[in-house]
Every structure is written in structure tokens, then in C-alpha cells.
């Protein structure tokens, strides 16, 4: 199991809910947190092929959003449970 962490900037209209739906569809665990400067930290844990699919949706966004990935890091899973928006 792997962990994907992305720092995302841009316009986020409906974006966190959009990503959460895909994370749950892919059976990923993790969270989306809005940072004080307005960027999002998107973290997901699961099988690497599912995380690669999720990364595609992080980059693409929904029709109302314009995300820009600022940083991406891969590491080992830490055992997160569920998928949450903070």
C-alpha cells in the first residue's frame, strides 16, 4: 500500500466533494484539508494503480474547477481510515 500527497492550488468550486467521490469509488483512505493560504492538501492511501487513477482526477478536476498541482509526494501508507474533508 502506498500514500499519495498532493499540494494543489487554483479554483476549487466543488472540487473537494468531487475528489472525495472518486476516492471512495476507488476505495482509498485519506483526507482533503484546506490550508490557511487557500491551497488544498490532498492525501490518499491505497493500491498504487488506484492512486495513479486518483492522481489523474486530481489533475483534471471537475468542470467548475481549475486545479494546479504544486507538489506531489509518494511514500508508504500510514494506515488512514475513511476519506474526509477538513
Low-confidence parts: none
Class derived from helix and strand content: alpha+beta
Major β-sheet, in short? 5 strands, mixed
Number of structurally distinct domains: 1
Name of the CATH class:
Alpha Beta
Second-tier CATH architecture: 2-Layer Sandwich
Order of helices and strands: EHEEHEE
The proportion of strand residues reads over 45%
- Neighbour order of strands in the largest sheet: 4-1-3-2-5
- Quaternary status: single chain
Protein name: Acylphosphatase
InterPro entries: Acylphosphatase-like_dom, Acylphosphatase-like_dom_sf
Pfam families: Acylphosphatase
Family: Belongs to the acylphosphatase family.
Please provide a written account of the structure.
This is Acylphosphatase. Pfam families: Acylphosphatase. Belongs to the acylphosphatase family. This protein is of the alpha+beta class and 86 residues long. It has a single domain (2-85), classed as Alpha-Beta Plaits. The protein has helices at residues 15-25, 48-60, and strands at 2-12, 29-34, 40-46, 65-76, 83-85. It has a 5-stranded mixed beta sheet with strand order 4-1-3-2-5, with helices on one face. The chain is globular. The model has no long low-confidence stretch (mean pLDDT 97).
